[in-house]
Amino acid sequence: METVLTVIAEFDRFGLDRRREPVISFGGGVLLDLVGVATSMYRRGVPHVRVPTTLLGQVDAAIGAKTGINHGAHKNRLGSFQQPAGVLLDRRFLASLDERHLRNGMAEIVKLAVVRDERLFELLEEHGELLIEERFQGSSPTGERVARQVLHRSVQGMLAELEPNLWERELDRLVDFGHSVGPALEMRADGELLHGETVAIDIALFTTVAASRGVLDDKAGRRILELLHRLALPTDHHLLDGDLLRRAMTDTVRHRDGRQRLPVPVGIGAATFLNDVSDEELRSALRHRRREAVPT
Ligand SMILES: NC(=O)c1ccc[n+]([C@@H]2O[C@H](COP(=O)([O-])OP(=O)(O)OC[C@H]3O[C@@H](n4cnc5c(N)ncnc54)[C@H](O)[C@@H]3O)[C@@H](O)[C@H]2O)c1
Q1: Could you read off the pLDDT of 255-295 as tens digits, one per residue?
Q2: Which residue among 3, 30, 198 has the greatest number of ligand 1 atoms within 8 angstroms of its CB, and so is best to mutate?
């Protein structure tokens, strides 16, 4: 919040006109979220153009209408819904992004592929490593073709999920896959894990829950976990324990207005929601994950 107020002080110092001069922010998801809080509060809302410069920003954080900052021990506890005046996507920014942050952004693409886009999943299986190697810059003809396809499918997929439910009146949201216990882990890890890395860990856990219940066949479950490993994304973390799982679920149920609404895959490119997952079932999935862990 201190940083938000610093940004707001700069709006005053600049002498920002209310409507004619949109604030244009360039940066990763953290910066876009934070400037979004500032622009949605300033004079009760001034226009904001987002220019995401990270992969995660381009396929997720800049799309949609959410702004947010952390508060206390909680991820995005404060924020608003503010439709951006525009979002400009240019993958040339990704040329300078380091490998860890590229992989981090890949986690949100995997999320979307698992819940709604089998073709996108296949593209990641086949060419994910090449995309990271080329930083989405299309250094080879295949890399160029696949970078275009993957970014296009990711952004269009996000838009298709978000647009009919921009203000989240409906809380059964497929895009919440990867975000059920991930946010609590991200806060507990205090900078040790990136956002997308916690998404990957959450995907692995709930894929295991789905496979253990038999709503997802073993082969599809293995493909999801193998893709995460192939992209060198984490599927576990030492801070994830029974206590964290219980507390994360309590907060998630409040966030989802009294129900679990847990998105879980039922195949590659399809998902359902579970509302009756017990603490013991989650702990058992975690133990199972640890027994089955594929060495990286
Ligand atoms: N509003 C939403 O709907 C939404 C959705 C998904 C994620 N998020 C949020 O996004 C955040 C994560 O965003 P992120 O992964 O972009 O992390 P980030 O904003 O921390 O950026 C990652 C790092 O990359 C640097 N950077 C940015 N662009 C660069 C470039 N082109 N070249 C080199 N370095 C560059 C940044 O300075 C930063 O150090 C999380 O806080 C998450 O909650 C928001």
Answers
A1: 999 999 999 999 999 999 999 999 999 999 999 988 876 54
A2: 30
Residue spans of the domains in the chain: they are: 2-89, 96-292
Mean pLDDT (the chain) is 97
Looking at the domain that runs over 2-89, which CATH code has it been given? Answer: 3.40.50.1970
Measured by CA distance, the residue closest to atom 4 of ligand 1 is 61
CA distance 32 to 195: 14
Catalytic (active-site) positions: 66
Burial of 77 (0-12, 13-18, 19+ CB in 10 A): middle
Check if 36 has its Cβ closer than 6 Å to any atom of ligand 1. Answer: no
Q: What is the CATH number of domain 96-292?
A: 1.20.1090.10
pLDDT tens for residues 222-261?
999 999 999 999 999 999 999 999 999 999 999 999 999 9
91: Cβ below 6 Å to ligand 1? no
Instruction: Tell if the pTM clears 0.85, that is, is over it.
Output: yes
Looking at the DSSP bridge assignments, the partners of residue 216 are none
Q: Rg of the chain over CA atoms, in angstroms?
A: 19
